[in-house]
Amino acid sequence: MKLTFWGAARQVTGSMYLLELEDNYRILIDCGTNMERNLEEEEENKPLFPFDASSLNLVLLTHAHIDHSGNIPNLYRDGYEGQVLCTTPTYELSRLLLMDAAHLNQKKLQRATGDSNKKKKRMARLEKKGDLYLDKQVDDSLENFVTIAFNQKFQVTDNLWLTFIPAGHLLGAAHIILETKENGEKKSICFSGDLGRKNYPLHVEPSPVPQVDYLVCESTYGSRLHEDNRSPEEALADVIRRTCINIPGRLIIPAFSVGRTQALLFTLNRLYSEQGFKPIRVFSDSPLAHSTTKVYDRHSKFLNPESQDFKQKHGRLFDFQNLTFIESEKASRAISNHNEPCIIISASGMVSGGRVEQHVAANIGNPYCTILLVGYAAEDTLGWRLLNGQNTLRIKDNEYAVQAKIEKIDVFSGHGDQQDLVNFVKQQSPQKLKKIFLIHGEETSMQTFANRLNDEGFDDVRIPLKGESFEL
To answer: Is 445 helix (H, G, I), strand (E, B) or coil?
Structure first.
């Protein structure tokens, strides 16, 4: 086997790994959008894929998040004709996320078209970048998705077997186990996908994986431990009491539409339904989150037992008194002026694009408003600037004084922390595991994690460069 790392190598986004077997059978594991693609790459006009898309035989998808799935439509546009194998929930969530990306691309193109030289130059840059797909390309790719059940070994070819194992990070998220036979020798490799954490709202806990020869492991939190040891209910209840009950304030929670918003809504439902918490007006302001919530509800059998018991007892996972799902942009603008205590949950989680920007802009100068960050915020995003205590914030050409309170909790982070990652790797025997490859993390985080694994007795830990290949 030959493994080449074409994405999320010494960075967090753009997961994409090419596995080539001895009979020239080529498998791409994940095909994600690179959120960190730099201007130098665009200016050099490098192709989107550093390989011939038509030469691929199969694509495997760990989960639906756009940094793992976002470039699949472009793969078909560039000549790929095979299937994408994933779990059923991953297929449904991928449909929503890819269609949402296509709609955003359409808006970019509409803004870029026109007679002015500025618009023409913008249009040329977008075309040169080459990764803007529309609805048709998404439809074409989704026709080739094939769903595979969890925990059932699936024979792909005479010498290749595949198993999806629950990873817990997102509805439908999977670890991928590949077993192959080359020259009579059996070899196995695990791609972790993104590792979930224990006791997370809704999601199952990561399942153990069998002994393999090679492990490709994410390292997003490779250098960090989750700080808050409270339950999600305790942590969220504390914030709401201080910001919306003890004072008549407003709580704005930037949250990703797929996964994070559902965890928040379920936690609020539990507070109101089981702990007698005073119902406060809650606005969920993201059409994508609303659609995702329906998928979660429809596929509740894939959620953890606690969630399924709650649904059986109360009837619904997410619908509760005083919850309003906001659809139109007009309604979204109106809730920024709601004059009673309320909670606004809106995308995106890093305050980078999406409707949450307008809510932050409208309330950043309000000392009775609290902005609660509940997840990772990449450097230079508005969320990152808020967390780093900037006194002013620039949003869409306007400068705002920061008078709102800024808080952070990490109980809703969907990634396992360093100890979770170590425990995941320690399911493997150091004597039997031949190599560990660390991906999907900042380089400093990877190095810290690699050192920790060395201390645990795992000697051969690699941190691949983009484009680096290994013979396995």
So the answer is: helix
